[in-house]
Request: fold
Amino acid sequence: MKFGIVVFPGSNCDHDVYHVAKHVLGQEAAFLWHKDASFAGIDCVVLPGGFAHGDYLRCGAMARFSPIMKAVEGFAARGGLVFGICNGFQVLAEAGLLPGALVRNAGLQYVCRDVYLRSERQDTPFTARLKQGAVLKIPIGHGEGCYYAPEEMLKELEERRQVVFRYCDAAGQVTAESNPNGSLRSIAGVCNERGNIMGMMPHPDRCAEEVLGSADGRRIFESILHGWQPARRLRI
Amino acid sequence: MKARVYVTLKRGVLDPQGKAVCTSLHQLGYREVTDVRVGKCMEVTLGGLPRREAEQRLKAMCEKLLANPVIEDYRFEIHEE
Reply:
């Protein structure tokens, strides 16, 4: 399987994702420069964490107009897997590829620590190796990670089961105390209706090996790998 | 021609910055303050456009880039120089 990692000016987790794809999973990986208008032979596009275009104006607001994003949109429309982590999630939300928006943390502070996440559904390409209700320990590092969507959109998201991860405590209970940034309904990650685009604020790329304190993030990457079939590449 | 674009958070979107400013004003004795919302103001300088066209193009700029319609409202005023 070949991962394509988009590099915007200001991306800073591109090499973390590359390392996980190439050295932890043993798969192929390539960087995709944001000014490139096309790419080929990629099975999963990852938009990594960082501060694309300095996060000026709003996080992801300018990155969504980088030339590569047209190609990412086309790839996703043909059913290709697109995975946004942290800043990558903000870019996908700004681009309208995922619903809602990420706004300033309720506590105003940049929060950088491990949190617990509850996996809400197993039937996505990103969670195939996680039982519904599985609890993961994964770090966050963001100042604008408070998930917001208007009430009506939240209802739709729940009905269509587009919430993939919620912040919870170690026992998997979703509580106010375990919500690190004020996200509505404790939402940490969502997918599109079709399920081939997913974004999450926590960083699975930072915890894919035991030596880093948790290997829980690896399970998300392994899910992607698990569901991938070589024949798919031809269709996409 | 100069345009001043105001981008503000929609009603219902939590504004922790505005809350912090509101608390500070209370501490300074301005008890009459009941709410503060913090927004952005951008000054955009434009050249060589009739006013009507400038208005249309500014609207498009706001909807495409300057504001995020999920969380923000915008308005602008145009000043001829």
Notes: Chain A is about 25% helix and 25% strand. Chain A has one domain: 2-235. The two ends of chain A are 13 Å apart (CA to CA).
